[in-house]
Amino acid sequence: MWWNGEYMEINGTGENIEAEPIELKWVIGYSMLEPQCPKCKEMPYSTSYCMFCGQRFIIHEPTEEERRQAFEEKKKNIKGATWNEKFFACDNCGEDIEKSCSWVGHFDGVDDYGEIYVCKCGKNIHVGHSRYSKW
Ligand SMILES: [Zn+2]
Ligand SMILES: [Zn+2]
């Protein structure tokens, strides 16, 4: 916990060598698969240990096939924009949402959850994760 000094201590020494390493999780990020610390759910900024909680990882790099599957899944879970073989284009104005959108908040639904972005043209884009997906 960051407020009782434990975090500072772990942060100061880097990895937490007392905890057993656990398998690094991969999740669909805004553009591709990104690592996620299974312990604190943060983006660990390293694949050897988490910069936030010190948890060490066993790395299973996603295979090409897994990356492809994750990308197919992502195409289904973006609402308000469509993949045009180059980028995710806003369904309203056709702009590349990676350039035209800004983040507005989270959504938390029954079957999915994720982030809400708003395009320059005013359209809301939902970038979600299915609760049933392995990603
Ligand atoms: Zn962590
Ligand atoms: Zn737009």
- Cα Rg: 17 Å
Number of strands: 10
The overall pLDDT, averaged over residues, is 86
Assembly type of the chains comes to single chain
Distance between the termini: 27 Å
Shape: elongated
Structure explained in plain terms:
The protein is α+β, with helices and mostly antiparallel strands and 135 residues long. It folds into 2 domains: 2-58, no CATH class; 76-130, no CATH class. Helices cover 19% and strands 32% of the residues. It has 3 helices and 10 strands. The protein has helices spanning 6-13, 64-77, 97-100; strands spanning 22-23, 25-28, 33-36, 57-58, 78-79, 81-83, 88-90, 101-108, 112-119, 124-130. A 4-stranded antiparallel β-sheet has the order 5-10-9-8. Strands 1-4 form a two-stranded parallel sheet. A hairpin with a 4-residue loop joins strand 6 and strand 7. The two termini are 27 Å apart. Mean pLDDT is 86; it is low at 1-10. Bound molecules: zinc ion (ZN) (2 copies). One zinc ion is lined by residues 90, 92-93, 95, 100, 119-121, 123.
Give a concise summary.
The chain has helices spanning 6-13, 64-77, 97-100; strands at residues 22-23, 25-28, 33-36, 57-58, 78-79, 81-83, 88-90, 101-108, 112-119, 124-130.
What is the strand and helix layout of this fold?
Blueprint: H1 6-13, E1 22-23, E2 25-28, E3 33-36, E4 57-58, H2 64-77, E5 78-79, E6 81-83, E7 88-90, H3 97-100, E8 101-108, E9 112-119, E10 124-130
Parallel strand pairs: 1-4
Antiparallel strand pairs: 2-3, 5-10, 6-7, 8-9, 9-10
Bound molecules: zinc ion (2 copies).
